[in-house]
Amino acid sequence: MIRSKILWLVFVACSGKLADAPASDEIVRLSRDDSQWVMAAKNYANTRFSGLDQINTDNVKRLRVAWTFSTGVLNGHEAAPLVIKDTMYVVTPWPNILYALDLKQAGAIKWVYRPNPSRAAQGVACCDVVNRGAAYAEGKIFFNTLDNHTVAVDATTGKEVWKTKLGEIARGETMTMAPIVVKNKVLVGNSGGEMGVRGWITALDTRSGRILWRAYSTGPDEDVLIGPDFKPPYVSGQNLGATTWPSEKAWQIGGGTVWGWISYDPEADLIYYGTSNAGPWNAVQRPGENKWTSSVFARDPDTGMARWAYQWNPHDLYDYDGVNENVLLDLNIDGQDRKVLVHADRNGYMYVLDRLTGEIISAEPFVYTNTVKRVDLKTGQPELNEAKSPQLGKFVKDICPAPPGGKDWQPMAYSPRTGHLYVPHNNLCFDMKTMEVGYIAGTPYIGAEVAMKPGPGGNRGFFTAWDPVRNQKVWEIKEDFPAWSGALATAGDVVFYGTMDRWFKAVDAKTGQELWKFRTGSGVIGQPVTYRGPDDKQYVAVLAGVGGWAGAVVAGQLDTRVPYGALGFVGATKDLPEVTGEGGTLYVFALPEESP
Ligand SMILES: O=C(O)c1cc(C(=O)O)c2c(n1)C(=O)C(=O)c1cc(C(=O)O)[nH]c1-2
Ligand SMILES: [Ca+2]
Fold first, then answer.
1. Measuring CA to CA, which of 56, 196, 231, 374 is 20 to 30 A from 576?
2. Rounded to two decimals, what is the model's pTM?
3. According to the model, what pLDDT value does residue 18 have?
4. Dist. CA 549 → ligand 1 center (Å)
5. Among this protein's residues, is 277 annotated catalytic?
């Protein structure tokens, strides 16, 4: 009797686990299947590496357009197309249209889903009305709309399965990030670090859209989901969050939004993601470390509880959002096998962290920086250069990197074949003047005037190959403009990325030699992907269509649909349309048929 009760309990416990497991297992399996592309970053580790090798360093020069598709939408096209079986899914910037394209018929439209997001959301998006893509699981496509909804759409029929509202435009919130699905949960976060928004990450039930948990980046431990298991490497004690701000009001409007990338280690069962800049930019108004803005969190995906956190930029002075991707790698460093997380921060440093504990293994600059002199590996503290501290009412000149950072959201790739990271990034400096700013809900909360300029050498961007074991540069390619697209690495040892001046490029993964390039219709800031089509050929797909904050960097305050002016971007150089055309087009490339 007792025995059967125990068996029954074991059965219940296991079936509970089983009911929870499928989505992650399915996703791990699908993300290893190189014929498909099921989440923006390709896999939970965020490597953007595909094992396909039909396109290689010898034949890539023959790459041709197979088909194209016009989205009919202006603004920054940043999304990664998804490929599930014979269908490609493309999300556009506002109005966030989801297209399903038939790969058996050169991209014929299968269906179109229009969520009709509120027009008002356009006015509060800091950095253009962008969207970074969708995620697939359990027969559904999940993505965010600019007006703060997460939607689930049936991947076969295009019918809406559920739609959940998560934030408020009136408070300055928007959503631009690409979700990931972990264990029957869709994980999403908000934008608005320039608008006096309080940042959060939220888990929704994939089946119902019900909110399961929400963790704030700022405020008391119970809101940040910090409990007894929280073991940050460089700080002790709890209730750190609220006490590192001058007042309760300050952390309620202090930023720390979650608009970047989320990665997941199924073995450790931890998710990793970063939080945005502290607000306002004028740091005089928020004395203290401003935890947990510009930080990285490791959390339990079931409960949301934080395991550890590390603050890249305590008391952020320069709008250094900490949201850039955390690439999860297993590396042998100094003879030891380490489970690491690699992160190229806006502050210009490449960090290699132990992803189980949060300890820093190394931190080295990947671009010219004069704001952070070094990162102390014992204390975790960045040592700041006081000569570049912002001053109230007075321009401080030539601060590097500029607010978009040594690198912004544009994600790097990693090839296990070369052991190199491929990093699209910026080379920007700026002058900054700070001023007192009042908080008005739903309006920019900045308190700074900035003028951007190219960094040393006069070029505004680089595409850099980086060795994460030695934590040093391998080679770099100079770009006139910030390299603001994602990177894609393949087993053909070809690496792809796009440029603002309308080139989509293929380079040799080992040497950086340019192998092929193609002029697209507009600047490329999308994330390239690759897949095996129904005809067994390898295809490479990317969205062109310039915008995003890179658009502002190039164009200054031209576009009145987004409050660049309010953000104080002065020093416009050239008109955006004079540099690079506008409008979204999907390009799909393949090798031509062998001629007999
Ligand atoms: O603090 C925030 O909430 C927030 C949101 C976003 C966004 O959602 O696009 C950007 C930024 N900050 C930001 O600082 C930034 O440099 C940036 C660039 C871009 C882009 O799409 O090119 N978005 C954003
Ligand atoms: Ca920001």
1. 196
2. 0.94
3. 43
4. 7
5. yes
